[in-house]
Every structure is written in structure tokens, then in C-alpha cells.
């Protein structure tokens, strides 16, 4: 049963979290534990947000290859970072109050995501392909713009952008974490209300509409939730493109169900588990600090290639 | 009663249906015939309220379908579309339960389960109920989708080529079932069906609507409408119509 497998996943995540917190704990234990707890929480929030968002996104787009990252969200983030550094200079960027910066980034990305998706969806849900292509092109455009802007920066400013443009779990601010967690909680609540409608939406827009689902409205609501999740996670740690693909694909493969009431939490748990397990291996066992995002991207990217190649076979 | 008044429909800016005026009375089987691209599927989608109209209107029991909520619409008209494909891992019973969506909105109750069981039984799918939809043969899957449309419990059933993948026996079974459902009774349905097999139309339909190039070419009771001249004209190929056991039989010549 899919329910039982979901509980097994939850157990696995609890185990991983305990390992992450407790492995090789030294004095001062209380202090180290609190550091680890913040890091664990950020891994959980980011993994869950990206996993849940990707499952919903794939259902609405009727495509199991896509992730919100692939349609340009990451590029928007990097562009925002570069723009800020360019506007304020390296020193100004560094002195910007963290909370204000975080809030502004979150808001910008949420608005941009909803605007992009909203405008596209007004033309009817059949145009999801157009949305995706627009997103991809927008991503390339923004990345190009960021690259160009990067050249205008001096090396020290550029290194700030570089740092902010790649996912890092090292220095997460606990206030930001609290905001992101609150956004995630709201998003998951919305997702659970939307889950039965997403089940129907997965039948395809024509069939869904024929059985009385207001498809466009459901799709827009889902995309608002997706935007909130991705915005929260990206603003917190930076862009991770392929984690969602891993989490969503595994959720479908492990749970083998069409019920979004199970798929969404399943993908959230798997996304979080991947990050916690990866961080545990790299940080505790291998003593590496910063390679997790690289490995996740690498494995996820390979999966993406595999899925594309398998799909495109005649 | 479904009434279509001065309806035109454009797809991607190209007019695909123009000046359609049609009335469908309650009960009976209406066969929608015409060459590929004539606009049969477009007509069914427009009648279901799933396509915006360029002009004119569609009313069901006096209510403009464009003004109805999605739920009211889906409790009035069931539409089986031509190319159904489902990626989710649904069983046949799950799929048919989705037909009850306008009644349960994702939370099926005992009445819905009873309706699903009845639909599975009616379309001889009970044994396949727990099979996954993507593990069925094309014809079995098609019958599952017909059962889904039936389970919707609507007075109107609009079926776009439901026979496309069916063998002769299942095609006949399905048509006999639809024919029986459309006879007067407490749960009478009105069936509008797109068929390419003219002999099926001749055998089971009460009424024919012939479409060509986005216009109505002919409508009427089948014995009057199904003539050699009309069909030859409609399909741009010579057709002879004979009568066997009181039913018209169509032979391309
Ligand atoms: N989604 C679409 N977008 C644009 N044009 C379309 C679309 N679907 C159909 N058309 C066009 O509308 C016209 C009528 O198509 P329709 O599908 O209604 O024909 P049909 O009578 O059902 O044909 P068939 O027997 O092949 O199913 C055709 O010219 C077709 O090219
Ligand atoms: Mg058609």
C-alpha cells in the first residue's frame, strides 16, 4: 500500500535526521547540537519545498521531465543577486540587512513566478508548453544578462555573486529559516487542500474539464503554491535545479500511486531525505563542506538525461 | 433539449464550424457523421461548453451553457473525447470513479461507489476493475472510458468515436447498450455519438447529423437522411444504400 510506503519514508527521514544530529557529537554538545539543528531544519525545509513543488508543477504541466528550476526560476534568482550587487556595490550588498534582502528576494520571486505562470495560463491550459518554452528562454536570457552584468563587477564583487548563485547550506540565518518554514507550512496546507483536484487535473486538461474541474483555476492555484515553495527555498540557500526532478521521480516510482495527497508529502520527504543523507555523508563521513549541491545537481542532471533519452526513443 | 443557435467556432483563428443551427430532443441516439476534419469533434466540445464560441449560443434545457459553472455543466453533459490517454497509475475502477467527480469532487461516498459498480457491470468491466488502465488493450481501455462517461450520470452523453478500437462483438454490445439506455424510462439518456462506420449509424441511430467542411450537410431521421446521393456527396465517393431487415445498409461502390 502506498500509505505504508509513505510511512516507511517518514521513518527513514527520521532516522537520517537523528544520525545527522547525533553522529560523533563532541563537547560542547549543546552548542554543536543547536548548530546542527539549524542546518538540519534548513535541509528539511529546502528539500521538502522543492520536492512538493516539483510534483505539483509536473502534474499541472502534464510533463514528468520538468521542474520549476528548469523553467527559469534559478536564473531569476541569480539575476536578482547580480542586480543587487551591481546596484549597491559589493560593500553595499554585504551591509544590506539580511532580513530585508531575504524578504525582498522572496517577494520578487513569488511575484515573478505568479506573473509568468498567470499570464501564460490566461491563454488556456493547452499552452503549458508555451509557458515552459518561455520560461526556458527567459532563463537563458536572464543568465546571459547576469553573465554580462558579472563582467561589470570587480573580482571581489563578482565572488560575492558567485557565492550567492550556488546553493550553500553553510550559513543559514535562523530568522530567514523561520520565514521560509512558515511559507512552506502555508504552501503544504494549500497543497493538501488542492490534492484531490490535482488528481483530476492529472487526467489531462480536456478530460479534467469534461468532468467539471475548473482546470485553469486549479492550475493557477497550484502554480502560486509552487512559486511560493521555490521562492522560499531559493531565497534561503540558492538555486538547486535538479533536486526536484530526483524527488518527484522517486516519489512516483516508490509510491506508485496517483493520489497527490500521498505524492506531495512523499516527494517532500524524499527531497528532504536526499539532502539530509547527502549532507551527512559529505560533512560527517567525508569531511567535505560544500560538495552536496554539486553532487545533487550531477545525479539529478544524469537522471534528467536518462529520462529524456528514454522518452525520445521511438 | 439542446439547442444550438447560429453557432460558429474558430480554432487557432480559423473558422471550423459556421452557422450551426441544431436541436436535439431528449432520448434516442443521434449519429454524427462526416469526413475527417469536418468538425464533428469540435461540435461535441462546443456543445459541452469546453470551447469558446465565436458567435451564437448553446442552451441546454433553456440554460446557456457558457454561463453554467463547471460542476453544473459536468452534471448535465458527459463528453468522451477522441484521444484519451492517461499517465497516472489508475485502475479501471479509479478511472470510472473520476466520472463521478461532479458529484463527489474528490471524496467519493457510498452512492458514488454504487454508481461505479453499476457502470462497470453495465459495460462488462467488473473483472477488469482492479487492472491498471495502461495495462489494458486499446478496446478495453476505450470501454473503460465509456463507462466513466456513463458513471457521470448526466442526461446527455456525447461520445466521440467510442467504437474506434472495438472488435465487432464489443462494438455491437456497446451500441445495443447505448441504444437501450436511450429508450424512454426512468434513467433515460440522450446519446450523441460520432461514428465512422455508417452501418453502425444505420443500424442503431435514430437520427443522423451529417457535417461537412464545418457546416451541417444534412439532418433527419436515418431512413430519410441516409440516402445514396447524400452519402456520396458527403464523402466525395460513391456509396450505395440498400435495405436489409428494414435497416439501411451502406456499401461503398
Ligand atoms: N486543437 C486544434 N487546434 C486547431 N485546429 C484544430 C484543433 N482540433 C481540430 N482542429 C481543426 O478543426 C477542424 C475540425 O476538426 P475536428 O477535430 O472537429 O474534425 P472531426 O470531424 O472530428 O474529424 P475526425 O473524423 O478526423 O475526428 C479541422 O480542420 C482541424 O484541423
Ligand atoms: Mg474527431
Task: Put the structure in a nutshell.
The complex is a heterodimer of chains A (314) and B (253). Chain A has 314 residues and is mostly helical.
Q: Which structural traits does this protein have?
A:
heterodimer, A: 314 residues, mainly alpha, ABC transporter involved in vitamin B12 uptake, BtuC, 12 helices, 81% helix, B: 253 residues, alpha/beta, Rossmann fold, 2 domains, six-stranded mixed sheet, four-stranded antiparallel sheet, 10 helices, 34% helix, globular, binds adenosine-5'-triphosphate, binds magnesium ion
User: How many strands, what sense, and barrel or not for the largest sheet of chain B?
Assistant: 6 strands, mixed
Please give the oligomerization state of what you see: heterodimer
Average pLDDT for all residues of chain B: 91
CATH superfamily of the largest domain in chain B: P-loop containing nucleotide triphosphate hydrolases
Mean pLDDT across residues of chain A: 82
The CATH architecture term of the largest domain in chain B is 3-Layer(aba) Sandwich
Q: What do we call the CATH topology of chain A?
A: ABC transporter involved in vitamin B12 uptake, BtuC
Please mark out the parts of chain A with pLDDT under 50 across 5 or more consecutive residues, or reply none.
none
Describe the structure in your own words.
The complex is a heterodimer of chains A (314) and B (253). The model of chain A has no long low-confidence stretch (mean pLDDT 82). Chain A has 314 residues and is mainly alpha-helical. The radius of gyration of chain A is 19 Å and the shape is globular. Chain A has helices at 2-22, 29-61, 73-95, 98-122, 128-152, 155-164, 174-201, 205-210, 215-237, 243-255, 260-285, 292-312. Chain A has a single domain, classed as ABC transporter involved in vitamin B12 uptake, BtuC. Chain B has 253 residues and is of the alpha/beta class. Chain B has 2 domains: 2-76 and 154-252, P-loop containing nucleotide triphosphate hydrolases (Rossmann fold, 3-Layer(aba) Sandwich); 89-151, no CATH class. Chain B contains 10 helices and 12 strands. In chain B, α5 packs across α6 (138-151). Chain B is globular and about 50 Å long. The relative contact order of chain B is 0.16. The longest helix of chain B has 14 residues, at 138-151. In chain B, α7 (168-181) links the parallel β7 and β8. The mean pLDDT of chain B is 91. Chain B starts with a strand and ends with a strand. In chain B, strands 6-7-8-3-9-10 form a 6-stranded mixed beta sheet, sandwiched between helices. In chain B, strands 2-1-4-5 form a 4-stranded antiparallel beta sheet, covered by helices on one side. The site of magnesium ion has 4 residues of chain B, from α1.
Amino acid at each position: 500500500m502506498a500509505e505504508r510506503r509513505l510511512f516507511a519514508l517518514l521513518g527513514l527521514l527520521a532516522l537520517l535526521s537523528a544520525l545527522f544530529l547525533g553522529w560523533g557529537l563532541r563537547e560542547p554538545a549543546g552548542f554543536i547540537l543547536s548548530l546542527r539543528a539549524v542546518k538540519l531544519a534548513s535541509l528539511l525545509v529546502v528539500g521538502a519545498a522543492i520536492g512538493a513543488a516539483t510534483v505539483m508543477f509536473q502534474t499541472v504541466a502534464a510533463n514528468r521531465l520538468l521542474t520549476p528550476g528548469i523553467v527559469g526560476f534559478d536564473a531569476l534568482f541569480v539575476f536578482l543577486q547580480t542586480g543587487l550587487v551591481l546596484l549597491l556595490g559589493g560593500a553595499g550588498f554585504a551591509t544590506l540587512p539580511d532580513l530585508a534582502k531575504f524578504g525582498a528576494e522572496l517577494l520578487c520571486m513569488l511575484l515573478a513566478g505568479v506573473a509568468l505562470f498567470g499570464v501564460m495560463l490566461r491563454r488556456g491550459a493547452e499552452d503549458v508548453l508555451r509557458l515552459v518554452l518561455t520560461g526556458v528562454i527567459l532563463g537563458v536570457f536572464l543568465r546571459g544578462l547576469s553573465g554580462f552584468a558579472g563582467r561589470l563587477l570587480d573580482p571581489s564583487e563578482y565572488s560575492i555573486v558567485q557565492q550567492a548563485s550556488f546553493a550553500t547550506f553553510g550559513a543559514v540565518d535562523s530568522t530567514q529559516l523561520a520565514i521560509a518554514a512558515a511559507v512552506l507550512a502555508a504552501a503544504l496546507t494549500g497543497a493538501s487542500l488542492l490534492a484531490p483536484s490535482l488528481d483530476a487535473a492529472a487526467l489531462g486538461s480536456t478530460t479534467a474539464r469534461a468532468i467539471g474541474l475548473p482546470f485553469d483555476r486549479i492550475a493557477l492555484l497550484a502554480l502560486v503554491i509552487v512559486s511560493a515553495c521555490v521562492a522560499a527555498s531559493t531565497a534561503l540557500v540558492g538555486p538547486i535545479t535538479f533536486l526536484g526532478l530526483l524527488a518527484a521521480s522517486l516519489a512516483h516510482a516508490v509510491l506508485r500511486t496517483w493520489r497527490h495527497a500521498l505524492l506531495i508529502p512523499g516527494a517532500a520527504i524524499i527531497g528532504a531525505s536526499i539532502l539530509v543523507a547527502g549532507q551527512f555523508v559529505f560533512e560527517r563521513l567525508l569531511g567535505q563542506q560544500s560538495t552536496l549541491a554539486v553532487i545533487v545537481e550531477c545525479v539529478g542532471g544524469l537522471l534528467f538525461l536518462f529520462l529524456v533519452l528514454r522518452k525520445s526513443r521511438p | 433539449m439542446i439547442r444550438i443557435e447560429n453557432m460558429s467556432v474558430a480554432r487557432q483563428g480559423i473558422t471550423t464550424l459556421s452557422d450551426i443551427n441544431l436541436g436535439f430532443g431528449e432520448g434516442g441516439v443521434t449519429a454524427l457523421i462526416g469526413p475527417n476534419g469536418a468538425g464533428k469533434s469540435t461540435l461535441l466540445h462546443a456543445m459541452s461548453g469546453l470551447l469558446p464560441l465565436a458567435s451564437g449560443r448553446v442552451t441546454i434545457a433553456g440554460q446557456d451553457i457558457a454561463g453554467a459553472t463547471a460542476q453544473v455543466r459536468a452534471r448535465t453533459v458527459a463528453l468522451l473525447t477522441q484521444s484519451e490517454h492517461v499517465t497516472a497509475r489508475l485502475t479501471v475502477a479509479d478511472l470510472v470513479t473520476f466520472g463521478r467527480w461532479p458529484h463527489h469532487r474528490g471524496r467519493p461516498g457510498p452512492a458514488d461507489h454504487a454508481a461505479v459498480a453499476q457502470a462497470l457491470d453495465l459495460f462488462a468491466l467488473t473483472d477488469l476493475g482492479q487492472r491498471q488502465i495502461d495495462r489494458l488493450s486499446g478496446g478495453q481501455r476505450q470501454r473503460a472510458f465509456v463507462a466513466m462517461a456513463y458513471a457521470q450520470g448526466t442526461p446527455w452523453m456525447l461520445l466521440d468515436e467510442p467504437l474506434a478500437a472495438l472488435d465487432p462483438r464489443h462494438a455491437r454490445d456497446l451500441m445495443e447498450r447505448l441504444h437501450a439506455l436511450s429508450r424512454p424510462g426512468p434513467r433515460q439518456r440522450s446519446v450523441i455519438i460520432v461514428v465512422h462506420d455508417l452501418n453502425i449509424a444505420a443500424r442503431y441511430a435514430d437520427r443522423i447529423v451529417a457535417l461537412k467542411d464545418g457546416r451541417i450537410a444534412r439532418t433527419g431521421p436515418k431512413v430519410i437522411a441516409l440516402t445514396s446521393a447524400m452519402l456520396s456527396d458527403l464523402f466525395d465517393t460513391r456509396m450505395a444504400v440498400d435495405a436489409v431487415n428494414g435497416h439501411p445498409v451502406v456499401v461503398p461502390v
